[in-house]
Amino acid sequence: MNWVWFHKWASPKWFFQKTDALVLWFGFLCLILLTVGTVWGLAFAPEDFKQGNSFRIFYIHVPSAILAQSIFMAMAISAAVGLIWRIKLAHIFVEVAAPIGASITLLALLTGAIWGKPTWGTWWVWDARLTSTLIQFFIYLGIISLYQAIENRDTASKATAIACLVGIVNLPIIKFSVNWWNTLHQPATFKLTEAPSMATEMWVPGLIMMIGFYLFFAYLVLIRMRSEVLEREKRSAWVREYLEKKDVL
Amino acid sequence: MIGGAFRYEFLQAYRLRSELVNPVVFFVMVCAMFPLALGSNAQLLAPLASGIVWVAAVLATMLSLDQMFRQDFDDGILEQMELSEVPFYQIVAFKILAHWCLTGLPLVILSPLLAMMLYMPAESYLSLIIGLLIGTPILSLIGAIGAALTVKIRRGNIVLALLVMPLYVPILIFGSTAPLMAAEGIVPAAQLLWLAAILVLMATIAPLAAALSLRVNIYGS
Amino acid sequence: MYFDSFTDFIAMGGHGTFVWMAYACFLMVIIWNLVSPAIRRRQVLESARRYWRRVDAESQSTESPS
Question: ipTM score here?
Fold first, then answer.
């Protein structure tokens, strides 16, 4: 198989030039999807039989919780790629995705707590999923602080990559142990009400929000990666051309 | 070579022997603080005993992690060790083992005493000791990776704690619930076997990951 | 529209505070995620601009017969 395309994308200049149009597309699409999903979920979807209208928080909480995990998975894969093939762009992805992932995890935690109050009667409950998300949040914070604490950028990238990989290897163990711990201490009544037998009018906006969230992440990551590429490559001729084109110089 | 490695570690530790007691003293103090804070009611403390001992053990281990590599890294000795013909991960493995002997093992030995002070029921003692015996090496192993990643950071303790805390959660959960199960008459085989499995996993990959991290920090990239 | 009136929409059958709080968090996270990279981008462009201005200035001052 021809792997040239893989190594082409490793070039910061190629990456920068090819993602120019992509950014606009992602931004536009995610704006549409998120708006449609939000309006549909807030105003048009029916309320839940047991939870009433607080069910609408589902449309933010579930996509953000899923995205929090996916982002970390993507970071781990990128970390491995960066370490094995020494591709700097992969390290840039890890550095840039971490704060986004942390903010999405925080959103999942906050919306989970807010949803918990009318549903379970209390702001915080040590539900297995909320607890795992809390630990995931700490993992993100650890990776961000590790990257910022090391002065040399290359050392920082590699150390962060190793930390990511260690994190992803341990994540299944952590989730298993939290699940197990939860069944030990909590009665089985505390379950997130997202039964698969959801009416179409209820899960379709959820799907739209999910895709919208993913696109939003892609959009943000591209913007941040492009800024980092500009910063690292600022001494190159192509950056100078870009600056002149943008009327910045 | 093994004897030599241990002798080196213990000699280093002996030279700073005032530092040696720090994790142990911390461990005892934390355990003592809980009755002081919560009241000495035996009925209140007994179910909390295994949790308190475990949390104290985790915190004490975290405090001692910094010393694993920092001194040798700053002196340049670690770099010499890396350059020797002995595979680096083996040297790191012995360092971790020696560190556990000096910090984790004393915690295991002291734990029955502290458990008694916290009114832990008699049936729980064995599972507490076995749990700590299997668990504290895991804490040292995982902590070694964190210590290796943060060895260059000047006041790396906070970053180290932040990195390593989420990874300690499973060990804390399994370790602290084993004595609770034992107190109810159930043999905590599941928890202890899980700890043993994690120990085997970490014993294999942690020295490699720590060696890689140390190399990254020694050579700058 | 699932709701009969706008007031009903805001009240959300009694759960209004929670639903709107959650969506407010959503909005804040979106705004932070849009503002933060924009600030960074401006910093980067500024830093690149300063670099090239300096390079141009130096090359001009050394262009004189040497």
Answer: 0.89
